[in-house]
């Protein structure tokens, strides 16, 4: 079965007697589905998301990717199949186009990126006004916070990742823009990509699964509507 499976995963930052940042996480993320991790700040959403590209390894339990232990993979290859957008995603102090294409070159797959798809992602995500100069940056024009987030998302998406991790990736957008960007992501990636969204607020509309976290643990897993009905 294809997907990511967390089995009794514990994680703590540092080695000593620090409290667990994640405790006893059991979670099944089927391939091609969208999972939203929600919960207050410090709940463990980013930590959980960071275990998928192995920025950290669990101190207990196991993570499996397509039935194999995540640690048995060559992570350089696996990370190439991932798109990761977090709040501190690195953008070059350069033009929009440079940032978009560099992500592909780094992954060694510039030629694999379909031109039409690139244009699509670009248009949907960036929502650029008519006549927008994509060489900005070179000319010292700064992007807004929201524009930078859109650019980071577009850069991740045009590589057609198998797994897309969005960690507070739309937090600088207003509610309407955020919804439009989320809808565009769904439309561009739908069944092909496993999407993991970590978000402080539950503004996520179209996730297949909502995972509610609190103090390093999963409190509840359900569909959006079933969780809304309880509120
Ligand atoms: P969330 O993404 O839900 O806001 P985090 O995963 O960032 O939560 O944090 C979970 C817990 O781990 C918090 O108690 C936080 O203080 C702690 N934590 C996060 N990052 C680090 C780090 N780099 N070093 C030590 N503790 C950390
Ligand atoms: P914010 O970051 O303020 O939330 P958005 O990123 O949602 O704003 O962008 C709001 C509008 O302004 C969008 O139509 C966007 O294309 C446009 N915009 C943002 N930054 C620039 C810029 N540097 N030059 C021209 N238009 C921009």
TrEMBL record:
It is found in: Cell membrane. GO terms for molecular function: ATP binding. Residues 4-231 form the ABC transporter domain. Keywords: ATP-binding, Membrane, Nucleotide-binding, Transmembrane, Transmembrane helix. This is histidine kinase. It comes from Phormidium yuhuli AB48. The chain holds residues 354 to 584 of 675 of the full protein.
């Amino acid at each position: 079965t294809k997907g990511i499976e967390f089995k009794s995963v514990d994680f703590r930052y540092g080695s000593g007697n620090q409290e667990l940042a994640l405790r006893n996480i059991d979670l099944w993320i089927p391939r091609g589905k969208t999972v939203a991790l929600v919960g207050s700040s410090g709940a463990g959403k980013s930590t959980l998301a960071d275990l998928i590209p192995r920025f950290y390894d669990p101190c207990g339990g196991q993570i499996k990717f397509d039935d194999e232990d995540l640690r048995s993979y060559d992570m350089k290859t696996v990370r190439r199949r991932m798109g990761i957008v977090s709040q501190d995603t690195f953008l070059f102090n350069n033009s929009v186009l440079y940032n978009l294409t560099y992500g592909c070159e780094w992954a060694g797959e510039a030629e694999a990126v379909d031109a039409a798809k690139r244009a699509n992602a670009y248009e949907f995500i960036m929502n650029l006004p008519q006549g927008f100069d994509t060489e900005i940056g070179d000319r010292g024009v700064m992007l807004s916070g929201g524009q930078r987030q859109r650019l980071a998302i577009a850069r991740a998406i045009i590589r057609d990742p198998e797994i897309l991790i969005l960690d507070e990736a739309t937090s600088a957008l207003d509610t309407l823009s955020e919804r439009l960007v989320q809808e565009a992501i769904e439309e561009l990636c739908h069944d092909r990509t496993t999407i993991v969204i970590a978000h402080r607020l539950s503004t996520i509309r179209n996730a297949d699964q909502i995972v509610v976290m609190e103090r390093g643990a999963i409190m509840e897993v359900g569909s959006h509507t079933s969780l809304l009905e309880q509120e």
